[in-house]
Write a structure and sequence with these properties.
Blueprint (H helix, E strand, L loop, with lengths): L10 H20 L3 H26 L8 H18 L3 H23 L5 H19 L10 E2 L7 H4 L7 H22 L2 H11 L1 H6 L4 H27 L1 E2 L1 H4 L2 H14 L6 H20 L6 H16 L3 H27 L1
Antiparallel strand pairs: 1-2
Helix pairs in contact: 2-7, 2-10, 2-12, 2-13, 3-4, 3-10, 4-10, 7-10, 8-10, 12-13, 12-15, 13-14
Length: 341
Amino acid sequence: MAEPLRAPASPLRKGLYVSIVLALIAFPHVLNAPFPHHVMIIIFMYALMAQSWNILAGFCGQISLGHAAFFGIGAYSTGYLFFAHQISPWIGMLVGVLLAMLMAVAIGIPTFRLRGHYFAIATLLIGEGVQIFFQRWDLVGAASGIFLPIIRETPLLSFQFHDTKLPYYYIILAFLALACFVVWLLDRSRIGYYFRAIRDEPEAASSLGVNVTRYKSFAFMISAGLMSMAGAFYCQYVLVIDPETVFPLSLSILVVLMAVMGGAGTLWGPIIGAAVLVPLSEVTRIYFGGTGGTLDLMIYGALIVLICIFKPEGLVGAVKLRRSHPSEETNDGDDDGDARS
């Protein structure tokens, strides 16, 4: 099974990428106010979650509707170990990643036998089951959740920064960069090629010697680990967690919407989707207050319907298609000329 050849990025594109990175690094110093920092932190966090879902669904074709379970596992692992045993949140994050990956294997082995919407329904039910379990688990606070103690002496070790949001900004930006680097590697590696083969033609991939279950499990583990990192960050950012906030079905659906709107199976799609939907949610929350709690979801739904009808490949695909039109027109003209000659 030969791997596709990829042309190296042009100098213009490399320059654009460098400019974006520099702009993101400089952003909190240009707009030195808490609210813009908070919005960007939330965008990065949701982009990280959408990117994690993108690995499983966009590249491997396994649509999960229960990804909030891994977000909650990361949040509770970090929060409980810090609350009950004073273990550093950084260690708790690693524990959460490991638990999420093990949980992904445990879920994936029996459910990968299911196809299409049956797999999606199974993950949805598992996610809801995990939330109900934590709502009744007294060891971790049951429905009341966990309130983390305030630590001021060792901010980096305790992962708590009370005077500024800048550390949170750069930490979640680094997490997102790590996720994007993983996706970039997968997109250019033999494993990523297998993922796409499994997504498009699983029977053909299996007939050519690809262990479909093994590679699906690998994608699920990477996806769950990155989602768990986002949950661990959220726990330390808000310092209060409960099953209703870290395991909700709405979180899983929102992550799916972001990845699909931006362009599933692409590097930039989840980031663009988060950059569009998170500010939209903040605007409706600010201008409509408590009455706008569902307005953003209605707008999300309308946007997704429009995207699915007119640009099913997402915003990234629409941009690529528009850029390709001039060359296509030129090629068509050349073909006509060759035919005439």
